[in-house]
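Morning run. Coffee first, then this:
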Amino acid sequence: TNLLLSAGLLFFYSPSFNFPSAAPPAPPRGPPPGWSVIASVRKSWSIFGKPGAKIWSAGAWQCVRMDVWRSGRSGAPMLRYILRRLLTAIPTLFVIVTMAFFLIRVAPGGPFNQERGLSPEIRANLEAQFGLDDPLWLQYAHYLGNLLRGNFGPSYNLPDFTVTELFAKGLPISVQLGTSALILALLLGSVLGTIAALNQNKLGDYTVIALATAGSTIPTFVIAPIIQLAFGLTWKLLPIGGWGDGALINKIGPVLTLALPQIAIVARLMRGSMIESLRSHHIRTARALGLSDWSVVVKHALRGAILPIVSFTGPAAAALLTGSVIVETIFSIPGVGRYFVDAALNRDYTLVMGTVVVIALFTIVFNLIVDVMYAVVDPRVRYD
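And here it is:
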């Protein structure tokens, strides 16, 4: 029965199968595309300890390794792909820095125009001290030179600190909140999406869809005051705001506010992809072999359904880890997002530019990590 089933699957899944003729064609290099499906079936069949399971399992691992090699996941193609992406990141960063530098200068006002009572002589001396009286192209050249050396420059409105010192203080706080919110969103959203997919067109599915729709439409500047009002003022369970030296109780409110919209998005993505994965041919074959629902969903369907979640994780991680402007402002958290708001309002050019560069770097790096993880999850992705 095992031999007949494998032969039938090879005939059904392999597009390179041809009927024998007088002059048979040369055998293709490597296993046919259908072998990867048969390999997963053989591996699952070996769990039950059927006769001949060891032979089939050995052949399955050989086919899997051949598919890994053919998909381009060896070291050299991956290294070349990463190097190409890093090289393309250089002109991307250059364009972002250039556009941000000139756009912030186009905005009316300046870093010292907000100070009332400053005489024109004092303002001129301050601009000369920071080089703001130089021609715009010369300021741009000086900023690029300092940026290449890793120097973001001083803060105009916080002269006692440099931009690097402010990032060293605020970025770890934003990363803590963003990492906690991202992990919570991926775990809870994936579980809710899987539950909705397994109960399609039932009460559980409708409940998850309703909650996900509400969570994705309600903005964070509405969710944050509701959490402060309910858990802070009414029930006295959480503090209204503040960082409190990183105490856990001070992180719950901001993390929930950041995570709720992401949970809704992940749940909707997981529901759609899981429904599509459960309808695929290899899932039907696994069910026909008598595998349990847990094994089918966790070991087989989840790997195909997780691909949209992997794509979503890159930009979501970059946005969450670099700080949320609204959440950090409402909860009075000294993160990068709050620094960015104050810098934009006060025309602190160097702090705004430093925030833009950090966000761009996070976005490029996380998108690269997602592309590499995509090939780890999906063997059809090639680097060459």
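Residues 217 and 261 are 8 Å apart (CA to CA). Good start to the day.
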